[in-house]
């Protein structure tokens, strides 16, 4: 026999192709997971922004005591809904306003953003404090 053969055997080529395929599929899976995570973070950030804007609007106009829920179609964000409730704090003339923003699709209800703030309700003149 004159010298060793140069090149790859069929088995070596198949093993190399299988390892390359495995590496590509793992890389694509990682990229997919990163993309899903980024979409989730962007969705949460959007809900946070909408919640703060709606909270500021409701407190500034005093509508938190009247309106209990709604959506964001006026802002072009039809995929989200909001609800507001008032909770007593135990302190005279001070209530907690709790605003919750969540996706409009029922299956996504586990993802929601809650904003809580305090509002001062001035006592009515001549009314004795409790």
Domain count, please report it: 1
- N-to-C series of helices and strands: HEEEE
Low-confidence stretches: none
Quaternary: single chain
Q: What is the overall silhouette?
A: rod-shaped
* Cα gyration radius (Å): 29 Å
Task: Tag the structure with descriptive keywords.
4-stranded antiparallel beta sheet, alpha+beta, rod-shaped, 130 residues
What can you tell me about this protein's structure?
The protein is an alpha+beta fold and 130 residues long. It is built from one helix and four strands; from the N terminus they run αββββ.
Secondary structure: elements and pairs:
Elements: H1 10-61, E1 69-72, E2 77-91, E3 94-103, E4 113-120
Antiparallel strand pairs: 1-2, 2-3, 3-4
Summary?
The chain is an alpha+beta fold and 130 residues long.
């Amino acid at each position: 026999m004159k010298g060793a053969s140069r090149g790859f055997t069929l088995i070596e080529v198949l093993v190399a192709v299988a390892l390359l395929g495995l590496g590509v599929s793992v890389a694509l899976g990682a990229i997919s997971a990163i993309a899903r995570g980024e979409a989730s973070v962007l969705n949460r950030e959007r809900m946070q922004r909408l919640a703060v804007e709606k909270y500021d609007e409701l407190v500034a106009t005093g509508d938190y005591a009247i309106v209990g829920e709604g959506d964001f179609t006026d802002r072009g964000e039809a995929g989200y809904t909001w609800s507001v409730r008032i909770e007593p704090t135990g302190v005279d003339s001070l209530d907690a306003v709790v605003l919750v923003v969540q996706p409009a699709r029922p299956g996504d209800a586990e993802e929601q953003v809650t904003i809580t703030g305090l509002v001062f309700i001035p006592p009515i003149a001549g009314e004795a404090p409790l």
